[in-house]
């Protein structure tokens, strides 16, 4: 991992913003991910993220915190927040912006004692992406459950991307032999350098709900977003 995502966050944080991130997937062309979006304030966040923040309570874990936008808002509201991210640059930026509790850890490496568990766990900006593949979802959900207090909640957003497989006549060009359609190969580049290809998972609501049930969790939809995205509460 070259941590180009982290390098881009650091550049922006340090006043060296000159280029945006460029992303693409195995089923979509290049797209620009503007760095200012990764430093969004509450009013610039999608409604679905605003809702997740308003529903957050107690001790909060922000998984894949990036630059710490969600954590900073919650901290200001007086909540105790811990941020984890697997990107060194992201954690450096979150700290520099004022997030008090940070850990440079991948989700599956992060464990806590029974007294340190969380009341709310946030995974935002297509939080299911972190699960990478459908076959990993149960492992990640069980791990998240192990970090959660008994009355706790996981707030996570995702998208049903089946629309990306629709052709102009409304038909689908889905190859059923290719596995779950939300499993994408994700490519990122920044300032002429390419990151190692990553897997990024989009889940439709019914698939996520079924996965939750198989590991003894409940899943309810809180709201739909503006473009096939949605927010759920898992408990
Ligand atoms: C799409 S960004 C979202 C950042 C932030 N939540 C936001 O909304 O601006 C995904 C973040 O998850 C982090 N990430 C990816 N896989 C992770 C993992 N297994 N454990 C912890 N963080 C991870 C990435 O480094 C990145 O910062």
From TrEMBL:
Residue intervals of the Methyltransferase domain: 60-152
Molecular function as annotated in GO: methyltransferase activity
A Gene Ontology BP annotation from the UniProt entry: methylation
InterPro entries according to UniProt: Methyltransf_25, SAM-dependent_MTases_sf
Membrane-spanning intervals of the chain: none
The entry's keywords: Methyltransferase, S-adenosyl-L-methionine, Transferase
Database matches in Pfam families: Methyltransf_25
PANTHER family: METHYLTRANSFERASE, UBIQUINONE BIOSYNTHESIS O-METHYLTRANSFERASE, MITOCHONDRIAL
Protein name: Methyltransferase domain-containing protein
């Amino acid at each position: 991992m070259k941590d180009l995502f982290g390098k881009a966050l650091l550049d922006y944080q340090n006043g060296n913003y000159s280029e945006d991130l460029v992303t693409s997937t195995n089923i979509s062309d290049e797209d620009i991910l503007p760095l200012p979006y990764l430093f969004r304030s509450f009013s610039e966040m999608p409604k679905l993220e605003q809702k997740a923040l308003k529903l957050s309570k107690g001790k909060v874990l922000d998984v894949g915190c990036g630059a710490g936008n969600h954590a900073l808002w919650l901290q200001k509201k007086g909540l105790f927040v811990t941020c984890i991210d697997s990107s060194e640059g992201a954690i450096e930026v979150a700290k520099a912006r004022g997030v008090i509790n940070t850990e440079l850890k991948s989700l599956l490496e992060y464990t806590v004692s029974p007294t340190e568990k969380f009341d709310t766990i946030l995974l935002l900006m297509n939080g299911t992406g972190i699960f990478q593949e459908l076959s990993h979802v149960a492992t990640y959900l069980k791990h998240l459950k192990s970090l959660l207090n008994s009355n706790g909640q996981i707030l996570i957003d995702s998208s049903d991307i089946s629309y990306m497989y629709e052709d102009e006549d409304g038909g689908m060009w889905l190859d059923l032999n290719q596995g779950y359609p939300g499993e994408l190969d994700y490519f990122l580049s920044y300032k002429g350098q390419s990151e190692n290809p990553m897997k990024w998972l989009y889940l439709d609501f019914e698939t996520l709900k079924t996965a939750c049930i198989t590991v003894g969790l409940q899943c309810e939809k809180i709201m739909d977003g503006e473009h096939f995205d949605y927010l759920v509460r898992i408990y």
